[in-house]
Specification:
Radius of gyration of chain B: 24 Å
Order of helices and strands of chain B: HEHEHEHEHEEEEHEHEEHHEHEEHHHHH
Radius of gyration of chain A: 24 Å
Shape of chain A: globular
Shape of chain B: globular
Oligomer: heterodimer
Helix content of chain B: 40-55%
Number of helices of chain B: 15
Helix content of chain A: over 70%
Largest sheet of chain A: 2 strands, antiparallel
Distance between the termini of chain B: 83 Å
Largest interface: A-B, 28 and 38 residues
Distance between the termini of chain A: 32 Å
Strand content of chain A: under 5%
Number of helices of chain A: 13
Strand content of chain B: 15-25%
Strand order of the largest sheet of chain A: 1-2
Largest sheet of chain B: 6 strands, mixed
């Protein structure tokens, strides 16, 4: 068997895999393993492991009431953002799937938020939200829609909503494009057959489009969940977790502990918790995906 | 064929020469702070002028916004890739010393350079060892609209009276600027705290820091007054929690604020941007019956232990601290000169520099302790909680002091 292996072309395939494998080991697996180790060690300010501390870093975080607020906020942030991105993305995809004049232009416009760098988009939105010079409140006042609009980034509730909207705005194009690709893969004959059977637009959507799009929906929402849960850029640029800590989510909280306070141990513990949450979500998604027989 | 081979060999030889020459160049990296007022041109010109004078050194100035400096530097250091030199807030020095990454700098400096620095500004000297060369130092002061305010207030109580007269929120003109969004450090609270005779920690007889004292009478009084300005008298710009210091500065420069506390860089920016109103500067106000005091902020430049080009880095320091480059730098950033050779330059006789120098005797610096970034955030979060009506000033400062003492094991 060994001789056969070396005689066959598989050796070439393995050789081709070596660079990618080394890359993955060095840049993916090693940092993951190191962060897991850090979470169980007392770590100095350079990130070196000093002594085994068991669950001390986890206990430190669990004892902080603020930590649980941040975890809850991360879940709410992700749930709302992914739901809205999915809903609006689907609506936009359905609209872009219809023939109309200017369809190419519309598709180009839709992709712009996705093509732009997220920090730059967030900075533009930061100016838009500015109470003194920003376009949003000026427009609301001039059009008489809202005489005294909130100072969006000054209050916990409005700051959270403002951050959430920017994340949604940046994420919708991806969902729309993925759904559009999924829609275009649905055979036209199915719709024609449904029409012959007297199906309405809603029933065609309910019994043809949605079932055939479910695989794409699952994968896209899973990816969106992972990205949204870890979306650092928008919050960091817009509010840096403020006012106070009212817009901190796990990822910004980890950053503060690691790079502002140099407390790598608790930061690593939070990173492990984040990893566990996202792994659980991924496993649930994957089980449901394969159970439905999408493959 | 032979001809082509010959040409090829010549090309390879020339390439080898070029690559060899560049390989011999010593690379010096400098993490460079983009102070308000400092232009990108300055760093680019400094880099090219230095490389012209020292062709064997490849200088790399890594320009970084001031509010990102701490985190970026820590990322470099934690990634075991520190630059050779870095500008730091001097209060970060203990943190870096705790990490064991900074080099005593004095041995690498030329005598001319050392003799040219005012010893009073050597805040980077810890237990007799110089780790940081002062790059900028200055006290914070009050900017006010001299076209609207006849006489600058000396006390915060006077300031409040003036503020109530000039405040016109319906015209988007606000009497006092207040920043509540984090921007490196909580200077805003320090102005009121120091003006009320307070400090962040008790100072023990041996000079070390004791318990956190922001919940004492001075600390709570300072926050109560700030909160009254925001929520009771409403003489600040609305939504203070959304404003960083630099955004507040823009609001003053655009003519929307009557009084604003800042550093010398604001004067440089007001001139650069051609402000369309009359403004002046005055010492930082204090509370009635309390001594005048403001914060003095010094920044330093440090050399890292891991640097393989310490001698070359020192050459850069000699170059940067030479009069022409320092004069331009000082003019742009608005700090008084740290070099003796520029002290009497006519440019620094302006009121803004005079006020900054006048305040030095009563000024206090930031606490020098490794935990300060976290303590800073804790106090700030509690101040914002007060502004948002979530906590009373007393409760906010009690919570802050308790958490800080707990972090410091007290």
């Amino acid at each position: 068997m060994r001789g056969k292996f070396w005689r066959t072309e598989s050796v070439v395939a393995y050789l081709f895999m070596v660079p990618a494998s080394v890359f993955l080991l060095v840049f993916m697996f090693y940092p993951i393993v190191y962060v897991i180790l850090m979470s169980f060690f007392r770590v100095n300010k350079l990130g070196d492991l000093m002594s085994f501390s068991g669950w001390a870093n986890f206990r430190f975080m669990f004892d902080k009431p603020e930590f649980w607020q941040v975890v809850l906020r991360s879940c709410i942030w992700t749930a709302i953002a992914v739901a809205v991105k999915t809903g609006l993305g689907l609506v936009i995809a359905l609209l872009l799937n219809v023939e109309f004049l200017g369809k190419k232009l519309a598709r180009t416009l839709v992709i712009i938020p996705w093509a732009s760098s997220v920090p730059i988009s967030a900075m533009i939105w930061q100016w838009t939200y500015n109470n003194d010079f920003g376009l949003l409140n000026h427009t609301l006042r001039v059009l008489g829609i809202w005489k005294n609009p909130p100072i969006w980034l000054a209050e916990p509730g409005s700051a959270f909503a403002a951050n959430l909207w920017v994340d949604i705005w940046c994420g919708i194009p991806f969902m729309a494009l993925v759904f559009l690709a999924g829609l275009q893969a649905i055979p036209q004959e199915l719709y024609e057959a449904a029409e012959v059977d007297g199906a309405t637009s809603w029933t065609k959507f309910r019994f043809v489009t949605l079932p055939l799009l479910s695989g794409v929906l699952t994968v896209a929402t899973l990816l969106s969940t992972l990205w949204t849960f870890n979306d650092f850029n928008v919050i960091y640029v817009l509010t840096a977790g403020g006012p106070g800590t009212s817009t901190d989510i796990l990822i910004t909280y980890i950053y503060k502990y690691a790079f502002q306070y140099l407390r790598f141990g608790p930061a690593a513990a939070m990173a492990v918790i984040t990893f566990a949450i996202l792994l659980t979500v991924s496993i649930i998604y994957a089980r449901s995906y394969f159970k439905e027989g999408a493959f | 064929m032979k001809k082509w081979m010959a040409v090829g060999l010549v090309v390879v030889f020339l390439l080898g020469l070029v690559m060899g020459a560049s390989a011999q160049k010593k690379k010096v990296s400098v993490l460079w702070a983009e102070y308000d007022g400092l232009t990108p041109d300055y760093a680019a010109n400094l880099e090219s002028a230095f490389e012209k004078e020292y062709p064997d050194i490849d200088l790399n100035i890594i320009s970084t916004p001031w509010d990102k400096m701490h985190d970026r530097l820590i990322s470099f250091v934690a990634g075991k890739q520190p630059p050779d030199l870095s500008v730091i807030g001097t209060r970060w020095l203990l943190e870096l010393m705790d990490m064991g990454v900074v080099e005593p700098i004095e041995q690498w400096l030329s005598k001319d350079l050392l003799n040219n620095i005012d010893p009073a500004l050597m805040e980077g000297k810890i237990k007799g060892v110089l780790y940081g060369l002062p790059v900028a130092a200055g006290t914070r002061l009050m900017y006010y609209r001299s076209d609207l305010i006849d006489k600058a207030p000396e006390t915060f109580e006077e300031m409040l009276q003036i503020a109530q007269k000039i405040n016109k929120p319906e015209e988007k003109f606000y009497a006092v600027g207040m920043s509540g969004k984090k921007y490196v450090e909580l200077t805003e609270y320090a102005y009121y705290l120091f003006g009320n005779g307070g400090y962040f920690f008790e100072i023990l007889p041996d000079g070390s820091y004791g318990k956190c004292t922001v919940n004492d009478e001075a600390g709570v009084g300072a926050l109560t007054f700030m909160n009254d300005l925001v929520n009771t008298y409403k003489v600040t710009q609305p939504g203070v929690a959304a404003y960083r210091r630099d955004e507040l500065q823009d609001l003053f420069i655009s003519g929307n604020l009557g009084i604003f506390f800042s550093g010398g860089f604001t004067a440089a920016l007001l001139e650069q941007r051609g402000a369309q109103f009359q403004w002046s500067v005055a010492p930082m106000p204090h509370f009635e019956g309390k001594p005048q005091s403001t914060i003095i902020i010094t920044d330093s430049i440090v050399l890292f232990k891991d640097s393989q080009v310490k001698a070359e880095a020192a050459k850069f320091l000699d170059f940067f601290y030479s009069d022409p480059w320092r004069l331009e730098f000082d003019k742009l950033v608005g700090f008084p000169p740290v070099t003796k050779s520029l002290a009497n330059d006519s440019f620094f006789q302006k009121p803004v520099y005079q006020v900054m120098i006048q305040q030095i005797p009563g000024a206090k610096g930031w606490p020098l302790m490794p935990e300060w970034p976290e303590c800073n955030d804790i106090i700030w979060d509690n101040i914002v909680a007060t502004f948002l009506g979530e906590k009373t000033p007393q409760k906010a400062m009690d919570d802050a002091a308790q958490e800080i003492d707990s972090i410091r094991g007290m």
